[in-house]
Amino acid sequence: MDERGVTSPTPVTRSRGGVGLFLTKVAGVLVLLVLAGLIAAWGVQRYVADRLTPDPTTIARASLDGLREQNRLSAFAARYVAVVTSRQSQLGFSTERTLIMPGMVRYEVDLGKLRQQDVRWDAGNRTLSVTLPPVEIDGPQVDLSAIREYGSGGVLTTFTDAEQRLDAANRTAGQVELMRQARAPSPMKLARDATRRAVERSFSMPLRAAGVDATVKVRFSDEPSSDEHWDTTRTVQEVLGNTG
Q: I need a surface site. Which of 3, 17, 150, 179 has the fewest CB within 10 A?
């Protein structure tokens, strides 16, 4: 109360300062809660993404197991015709026989020989490299109904077994000729290319279905490698071993 007897109002400065400090603390707590919520949401999203993101190595291993279960893959076959002639001379007489022998040859790869280390994943280039065993030739499967034999006849075929011996020699030589044709560079290249495409599809289709953008490269173990990454990339087994 002043000299005039009038009561002075009570100061409110400290009360207002306390409310402001309280509101500041509440705002700070809310900011921290929001940040914690955002961090938690990011962690959950990252965890779910890691769980749901397809693993190329897992898909490749499943494809590899599926291929090995097929045992042998035959992606190419070809039909050849051997024409051979044998001659025989005896006692001043001679005769000859000509054989026309068609036969079918299949080109196969023994998928049972595939190993985990034959499949390598290069995460940097997103490339899956597969090394196959060499192409093997199955056959020839001779079409006996289509064989044709011709001969000049003569005294030897009449009085000796020259005709039977010539036919036997021709059949042996015919099979050798069929295999020679089958092993020529051109059909071997066609067989490798057909097998390569089939195996590439076997790996690329599951990867594509899972949404994985990857390139699949297939080569054969008896082919020279022109890609340095074949020797530097990690095998599927190594990748899975490190992630386990």
A: 3
